[in-house]
Design a protein that fits this description.
alpha+beta, three-stranded antiparallel sheet, 8 helices, 10 strands, rod-shaped
Length: 338
């Protein structure tokens, strides 16, 4: 009985192993390559699959999801003979599991080497400044070349990104100095523009203030002139309405004479000729008051004219002031009221 029991146990174990090898469960977004006696038979898709045990062999399981592969920095020489280190990231996806298995030995290594060679060809035709500012152009060039080369491998390159472009340390220092100088230049230009704009605004403000001040002074002068004209007109109308006689005018002349001599700068003053007529009228008024009356038959005698010298004494000039001009003594006629 013991040998039979052993055989049964062996058969159960073999059947269990055969069952395990017969049933293949493939996860979602995955594929498996099946070979029969070393030859490709079919590709297993996601789900439950049945294979012939001990005849069919599952060689490789491939992930069909999009993969991200970062590559280490690669030294690349630019057109102006500068060595820069460039980090790249490749986004790819396996579209054909059979081609990815049999068309290339290691598609990851193949993509890396193809990326390096293509990157050197593209960067070699560009200078450093273009390399730093043309990432989109480099990405598009890499993607085009990789997508074309990896199509027969059953791989689609979705995106190619440059993580970093590192120029030499000396070049970085020079670039920092250049950028600092450029920023200082822009700051100086902005400061000068601000000062210029402020000066223009101040000048415009001063101009407007001067114009407004001049307009105000002109209006004030016009108003003062109008007021003086109105005052003169009122006085003139009052005199004519009051019918002032010669006596009042003579009295006003006598009150005005002291005003002519006021002021320290008046060295010489002149009696107007109209004062004679005023004094004559005033003399006649005084004669009427004292009781004397001229004879109607004989015309009045001509008044005696005696020369009178009217000169204000000169004061010696003080130190630091200009010497006043001395007018020669002139004689003016005076009217004797008697």
């Amino acid at each position: 009985m013991e040998p039979v029991l052993i055989v049964l146990v062996v058969l159960v174990v073999v059947a269990f192993i055969a069952l395990i090898k017969t049933i293949q469960v493939i996860p979602q977004a995955s594929a498996a390559i099946v070979e029969r006696f070393g030859r490709y038979t079919r590709t297993l898709s996601a789900g439950l699959n049945i294979v012939v045990p001990f005849i069919d062999t599952v060689r490789n399981r491939i992930d069909l999801r999009e993969q991200v592969v970062p590559f280490p920095p690669q030294p690349v020489i630019t057109q102006d003979n500068l060595v820069v280190n460039i980090d790249t990231v490749i986004y790819y996806q396996v579209t054909d599991a059979r081609a990815a298995t049999y068309e290339v030995a290691s598609y990851i290594q193949a993509i890396e080497q193809l990326t390096v060679t293509t990157l050197r060809n593209i960067i070699g035709s560009m200078d450093l400044e273009s390399t730093l500012t043309s990432r989109e152009v480099i990405n598009a060039g890499l993607r085009g070349v990789l997508d074309e080369a990896t199509g027969k491998w059953g791989i689609r390159v979705n995106r190619v990104e440059l993580k970093a472009i590192e120029p030499p340390t000396s070049i970085q220092d020079s670039m920092e100095k250049q950028m600092r100088a450029d920023r200082d230049k822009r700051a100086a230009i902005l400061t000068a523009e601000g000062a210029r704009q402020a000066a223009i605004l101040r000048a415009e403000g001063d101009k407007q203030a001067a114009v407004l001040t001049a307009e105000g002074e002109a209006q004030a002068a016009v108003l003062r002139a109008d007021g003086e004209a109105a005052a003169i007109r009122t006085v003139f109308e009052a005199i004519h309405d009051g019918n002032a006689d010669q006596k009042l005018l003579a009295y006003q002349y006598l009150q005005t004479l002291p005003e002519l001599a006021k002021g320290d700068s008046n060295k010489l003053w002149i009696i107007p000729s109209e004062v004679g007529d005023a004094l004559k009228g005033l003399g006649g008024a005084f004669t009427g008051l004292t009781g004397g009356a001229p004879t109607p038959s004989a015309p009045p005698a001509a008044p005696a004219v005696t020369p009178v010298t009217v000169d204000k004494p000169l004061t010696p000039p003080t130190e630091g002031t200009a010497r006043p001009r001395v007018e020669p003594t002139r004689q003016y006629p005076t009217i004797d009221p008697e």
